[in-house]
Amino acid sequence: MNTPLKSIVTDFSLIDGLSQSRPAIRRTLSAMKGMYADQSAFERDLARDDRLVYEYFDMGVPHSEKEVAYGTSIVYPGKVGSEYHMTKGHFHTVIDTTEVYFCLRGHGMLMMENPEGDVEVRELKPGFAVYVPPRYAHRSINVSSTEQLVTFFAFPAHAGHDYGTIETKGFRKIVVERDGKPEVVDNPRWMS
Amino acid sequence: MNTPLKSIVTDFSLIDGLSQSRPAIRRTLSAMKGMYADQSAFERDLARDDRLVYEYFDMGVPHSEKEVAYGTSIVYPGKVGSEYHMTKGHFHTVIDTTEVYFCLRGHGMLMMENPEGDVEVRELKPGFAVYVPPRYAHRSINVSSTEQLVTFFAFPAHAGHDYGTIETKGFRKIVVERDGKPEVVDNPRWMS
Description:
homodimer, mainly beta, 6-stranded antiparallel beta sheet, globular
């Protein structure tokens, strides 16, 4: 006889996105090597402090198309040169799987790009959900100078993560601060 | 040449769960006929007012295992006899697909039951996510007397909804108020 499957309860703070019951995966500046346009600012910052850039949860649900992977993502405020703190960003390995990001706190942008070079940029504000279409790599960017960007995400659990493509090529567009405001500009280091 | 797919942005209030940009699906008392244990209380309440019991969003994402369906669900406070306001509840048509409910506001219970009769009941409180395992029907129940129960849900978009099984048989357990507190009891009207 099979043991019945059990439900899972997890706390994710609506204030800071963190959980008291589960460990987050933490990405510090050193994990972002090569991803920021201003390499000397990156090296200078890193020499000072390998600061926390973002963290997120992997709940370990089975990698099946019958399941949905979920959790929170927290991007802390900060910049490397004029470029805002951001996640690495990734394609899904099953490239035409989607993802939803529901913003709980802060102010951000969701950068999306498909292999053909179509770019979508959407604002993340508390109470706004952004649905990433099939075939788009996606990255969360915190454009607030003071507050963490907290989102609750969900995607088909068989999607998988392809980080390598973005690590190698980058996104075509980046978000930088110009005159105190976020601006989407071409990525000078993007490789076609 | 194909037109690239576009991202979708939707507002869901973190306060009341509702959207300014999308219509909700509304379930009033008359839609709940036969679902409450106290039939005479139900008829009496309905004769007075076909009140709103709950509402939720169907974002209309393609019914593909590559996509994730999502939205908010809002159950308003109230009781029929001693039984709390609740959603109809459903199995997924693809019965072994899962679902996550992330509570944004209020106080509730998520009632879950599989065809073998295993029952799981979990509390819904702000900042708590409940993951419904494969093969479990699920229903949200608002146990607050004053506040709406607001959750953000996500499930594999090919899951489908089987409402009929619950409409016919009911859940094995219901949640009623006893001495001012929620209590899980056998459903006197459950049909095996």
